[in-house]
Write a structure and sequence with these properties.
The chain is α+β, with helices and mostly antiparallel strands and 121 residues long. It has two helices and seven strands, in the order ββαβββαββ. The strands form two sheets. The chain has a five-stranded antiparallel beta sheet. Strands 1-2 form a two-stranded antiparallel sheet.
């Protein structure tokens, strides 16, 4: 009798079905979520509002063994109403922004479009 099988239930056989189904399910969820955010951003108006750069942060992933590291850049802006919005920006934009910069933030949903610094300050 197989020690890994009990009463006709094959644990290893079930794992070969359950694990791939879970992995495929996670990929489908991520894909649908990404398409949903993309569609929502496209339906949102492009807004340009006075804002201040509050803080900047980075998130690095990968870089283990032979894999390359990837860095994502985020900036938190505060608009006149006091609401704060964190948007993902590219590395060159990230480098050009400084905390306490004042200017006009342009965005569409969660999509960063640009920031024009107020040069009079």
């Amino acid at each position: 009798m197989d020690p890994y099988s009990s009463g006709g239930f094959d644990l290893f056989g079930a794992m070969f079905v359950i694990i791939p189904v879970l992995i495929i399910g996670v990929f489908i969820f991520i894909f649908v979520k990404g398409i949903s955010e993309w569609s929502s951003n496209n339906k949102s108006p492009i807004l340009s509002v006075p804002a201040e750069v509050i803080t900047k942060r980075t998130r690095t992933s990968g870089g283990h063994g032979n894999s390359a590291a990837s860095t994502s850049y985020y900036v938190t802006f505060e608009v006149q109403s006091g609401d704060r919005i964190e948007l993902r920006v590219n590395g060159s934009e990230f480098g050009m922004l400084a905390e306490q910069d004042l200017g006009i933030l342009t965005f569409q949903g969660s999509r960063y479009k640009g920031f024009e610094r107020d040069k009079t300050v």
